[in-house]
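Suppose a colleague, Dr. K., hands you the sequence of a protein chain of 289 amino acids and asks what its three-dimensional shape might be. Before reaching for any lab equipment, you can write down a predicted structure in token form. Begin with the sequence itself:
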Amino acid sequence: MKAICQTCIHHCQLEEGKWGICGARKNEAGKIVCANYGAVTSIALDAIEKKPLRLFEPGSVVLSVGSFGCNLSCPFCQNHEISMARGGGAFQNGDRSCVFMTPKELAKKAAAYRDRGNIGVAFTYNEPLIGWEYVRDTAKLVKEAGMKNVLVTNGTASMEVLEELLNYIDAMNIDLKGFREDYYKKLGGSLQAVQRFIERAAAKCHVELTTLIVPGENDRVEEMEEEAKWIAAIPSVYKEKTGRDIPLHVTRFFPRYRMLDKNATDVRQVYRLANVAGKHLEHVFVGNC
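The predicted structure, expressed as tokens, is then:
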């Protein structure tokens, strides 16, 4: 029996036994299931600034956890070994490192690191919202323990998924990969969908944005000008701030995955674009320079 996945913008229509674009959700007996639930491929105590979050709990660390799969197909992905895994593959067969942790086990592990400065859990590394049920179930327990939840996402989940999670998430870093619809289509996404996601999230929790500058793709001054103006105009932001208060991270591209033949972004261009954004936004940071 065919089933439609409602998790993200793709709304994959899946025949029995088939996997969605993300490689982590499948049709089992006519029902869409989260096949990467509890499958942890990466876990580490990270500085909060690595998410990157600069204005949320600065100087702290957070237990960062990831699984496998992603619903975009960015050719520059730095975590492609896990994000581009489809159907679990070697992870579920035991050929590659993967541990299974229940939400209770992960929340307990986060609490155990409190004495090392840990503030909670960050769902990151791959696209966490393709496994939103695990994020929700774990985040509830983390909040009950008096700790915080951080989400690092590409912002292409459905608004229904976002609403399921907003009461449990304290901060997000959302990728704004560029500011042209045709660029997003190349990556398998939608600029309009990400804009809606950002606007809703920014009204409910602390949000910071990241734009990776890829030479010849999204590095025009005019595009950054449009992007920064749009961010600044977001009408309702958490804690009665304005869009101008949303931090933007402008980061440098390095050759990765399917873009190994492209040069790293010129540092001068990264700073040039950051300066352009800074005409409209109060907090602009450069990364990877």
